[in-house]
Amino acid sequence: MSDLLHAFVLPQLGVRGAAVRLEAGYREVLSHQPYGAFVGRWLGEALAAASLLVTGIKFNGRLSLQLQGGEALHLLYVECTSDGDLRGIARTAEADFDWSRGFAAAASGAVLAITLEPYLKSERYQGIVALSGDSLAETLEGYFEQSEQLPTRLLLAGDGERACGLLLQRLPSEGGTHNQIDPDAWNRVLHLLNTVQPDELLTTPSAELIHRLFHDQQRLEADPVPLHVRCRCTREKVADVLRRIGQDEAAAAAEQLGHAEIVCEFCGKTYQFDAIEIAQLFRPEPPVEAPDRPQ
Ligand SMILES: [Zn+2]
C-alpha cells in the first residue's frame, strides 16, 4: 500500500511532523486531464501539501488549498479530508508558456487560499497568502510564519509517478513545556531536514525516511492513514450546473447530441441528461401551499 500519511511527534524536540507518499492516487488525479510535466509536478506537490496539513487540524472536516489567478497557472486546487479523501485539479492558460521558467513565473500574480471546513459547523476558516519564493512549499511556510506564528518547514516533490512530502512544525509552547526543550532543538531539526534531497524524498518510503532522520529521538507515531482519491461530485450537483448554464443551452446540446453531457473536471466521470430530463430540471417548482391558519 503506497498512499499513506504518517504523523508523528518528537516530544523531546517540541516538534510535530508528517510524511506522505502518494503513488496510485497521484497517477489517478493526473489521468483525468492532459497535464504537462511541470503542472503535473506542482499538482503532486499540492496534493502532498494538503495531506500533510490535514494532520494539523483538530476536527473532522476538509482542508483545501486554492492557488488562483496565476499568469499561466490559472488554478491549482486540491483538497484532503480528515478521512483521507483527496482530489485535485489544475487549469492553465491556453497560450504557449515556457513552463521551465518555474513555479513563481507560472503562478505570478496568484494568491493562495487555505480553507478549513469542519463537517459539523457551518462556519469555515480561510487564510489568504501571497506567493513567496519559487515554490508552493515556501509560500506555505510564509503563511505559517505570518498567521500562525508556528515555525514550519515543508519539503514537497512530485515527478508524475510519485508525490511525496515531509512537514516539520514547532509545537506551540503549552504550560511552559518548551522550558525543558533545548533552545537549539529546532535548528537541529532544520539541519536534519536540509540533508534530504528531492530524489531521496521521492524514493524513500516515509517510515524509513522518518527513521533515518530521527532514529536517535523519542518518537510518538500515529497509525498511518490510507489516502484515497475520492470525488464529491453527484448527479444532483451536476444538475445544478446545468441549471446555471440555462435551459436554452442545455436543450440545444441535448438536441445536437441526443443528450447534454457534463464531465466532472476532478474525476472524469461523465453525466448525461436527455431532453426529457433537461425539461424536468427547468420545470418550475410547484407553489408551496400556505398552511391553514388556526381559526
Ligand atoms: Zn467527480
User: What is the overall silhouette?
Assistant: globular
Count of domains: 2
DSSP E strands, number: 14
Write the element-wise H/E pattern from the N-terminal end onward: EEHHEEEHEEHEEHHHEEEHHEEH
The description of the largest β-sheet is: 6 strands, antiparallel
- CATH class bucket of the largest domain: Alpha Beta
Class from secondary-structure proportions: alpha+beta
What name is given to the CATH topology of the largest domain? Hsp33 domain
The total of helices stands at 10
Tell me about this structure.
The protein has two domains: 4-229, 3-Layer(bab) Sandwich (Hsp33 domain); 235-281, HSP33 redox switch-like (CBS domain Like, Alpha-Beta Complex). The mean pLDDT is 91. The strands form three sheets. Strands 1, 2, 8, 9, 10 and 11 form a six-stranded antiparallel β-sheet that branches. The protein has helices at residues 24-31, 37-54, 103-106, 136-148, 185-193, 198-203, 206-214, 235-245, 247-257, 275-281; strands at residues 4-10, 15-22, 61-68, 73-81, 85-92, 111-118, 125-130, 152-158, 163-170, 220-221, 225-226, 228-229, 260-263, 270-273. The relative contact order is 0.16. It is an alpha+beta fold. A hairpin with a 4-residue loop joins strand 1 (4-10) and strand 2 (15-22). The chain contains ten helices and 14 strands. The protein is globular, with a radius of gyration of 23 Å. Zinc ion (ZN) binds at residues 231, 233, 264, 266-267, 269.
